[in-house]
């Protein structure tokens, strides 16, 4: 089954304790991205990656890091979490660009990770 | 700056009736895609419908259709014969071709009344 898998689904942590949210896709998509969802603000992009070793900042990258060492994996790292990073996080992947058929630019999302930082 | 605006935080519709969710956007690109995604209570984000800007014809997927007005930069979603399972948060979105960023609106919560 084509899917994006992210873990953990739920996490409660304390300020300053490093954590990683993993994301893996099995569709051989070039494009992967992370979003956070907050009430009244919709989804905001944190980071995205066009391919292995190619990453760039989205609209809210502060306090986050990412890496893309393999095409299928795109972990989100919070080096020193703070309470304002309490949020619902989504990983997503896609083909990108024209000429990729009807699947181009359609995001396939993971199930979401609810993170609480105390 | 490229933006996506959903001006209706919440809407209600009676079961079997029709409802339209609004979305406006601002872009300097001439060729682009637009999307509506649905987020039911399960939180799983699901594609509802996709529109290619260079196509004149409005996209349709079963009970879901769009009213795409390119000049007005408007992309509304019409849900016909609303069902209880349509109750969800709906997000309008578009990917910026030039920068690979993906912009979402703030969402419209749709309630379906039995």
How are the SSEs ordered, and which strands pair?
The complex is a heterodimer of chains A (118) and B (114).
Chain A: E1 4-7, E2 10-13, E3 19-25, E4 31-38, E5 42-51, E6 54-57, E7 65-66, E8 76-78, E9 87-94, E10 108-109, E11 113-117
Parallel strand pairs in A: 2-11
Antiparallel strand pairs in A: 1-3, 3-8, 4-5, 4-9, 5-6, 7-8, 9-10, 9-11
Chain B: E1 3-5, E2 10-14, E3 19-21, E4 24-26, E5 33-39, E6 46-52, E7 60-61, E8 64-69, E9 74-79, E10 88-95, E11 102-104, E12 108-113
Parallel strand pairs in B: 2-12
Antiparallel strand pairs in B: 1-4, 3-9, 5-6, 5-10, 7-8, 8-9, 10-11, 10-12
Q: What do you see in this structure?
A:
The complex is a heterodimer of chains A (118) and B (114). Chain A is mostly beta strands and 118 residues long. Chain A has strands at 4-7, 10-13, 19-25, 31-38, 42-51, 54-57, 65-66, 76-78, 87-94, 108-109, 113-117. In chain A, the strands form two sheets. In chain A, strands 2, 4, 5, 6, 9, 10 and 11 form a seven-stranded mixed β-sheet that branches. Chain A has a four-stranded antiparallel β-sheet with strand order 1-3-8-7, with no helix packed on it. In chain A, a hairpin with a 3-residue loop joins strand 4 and strand 5 (42-51). Chain A is globular, with a radius of gyration of 14 Å. The model of chain A has no long low-confidence stretch (mean pLDDT 92). Chain B is mostly beta strands and 114 residues long. Helices cover 0% and strands 52% of the residues of chain B. In chain B, the strands form three sheets. In chain B, strands 2, 5, 6, 10, 11 and 12 form a six-stranded mixed β-sheet that branches. In chain B, strands 3-9-8-7 form a four-stranded antiparallel β-sheet, with no helix packed on it. In chain B, strands 1-4 form a two-stranded antiparallel sheet. In chain B, strand 10 and strand 11 (102-104) form a beta hairpin. Chain B is globular and about 45 Å long. The model of chain B has no long low-confidence stretch (mean pLDDT 92). Chain A binds chain B through residues 31, 33, 35, 40-45, 48, 50, 56, 58-59, 88, 90, 92, 96-98, 102, 104-107, 109, 111-112, and chain B through 6, 9, 31, 33, 35, 37, 43-47, 50, 91, 93, 95, 97, 100-107.
């Amino acid at each position: 089954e084509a899917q994006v898998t992210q873990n953990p689904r739920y996490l409660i942590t304390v300020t300053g304790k490093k954590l990683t949210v993993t994301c893996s896709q099995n569709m051989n998509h070039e494009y992967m991205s992370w979003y956070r969802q907050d009430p009244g603000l919709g989804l905001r992009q944190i980071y995205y990656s066009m391919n292995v070793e190619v990453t760039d900042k989205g609209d809210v990258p502060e306090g986050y890091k990412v890496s893309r060492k393999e095409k299928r994996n795109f972990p989100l790292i919070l080096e020193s979490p703070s309470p304002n990073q309490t949020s619902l996080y989504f990983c997503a992947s896609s083909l990108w660009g024209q000429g990729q058929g009807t699947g181009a630019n359609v995001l396939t999302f993971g199930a979401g990770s609810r993170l609480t930082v105390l | 700056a490229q933006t996506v605006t959903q001006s209706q935080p919440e809407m209600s519709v009676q079961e079997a009736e029709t409802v339209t969710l609004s979305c406006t956007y601002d872009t300097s690109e001439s060729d682009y895609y637009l999307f509506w995604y649905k987020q039911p209570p399960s939180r799983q984000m699901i594609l509802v419908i996709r529109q290619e800007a260079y196509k004149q014809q409005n996209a349709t997927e079963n009970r879901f259709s769009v009213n795409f007005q390119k000049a007005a930069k408007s992309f509304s979603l019409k849900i016909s014969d609303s069902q209880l399972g349509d109750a969800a948060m709906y997000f309008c979105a578009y990917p910026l071709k030039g920068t690979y960023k993906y912009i979402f609106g703030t969402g419209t919560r749709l309630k379906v009344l039995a």
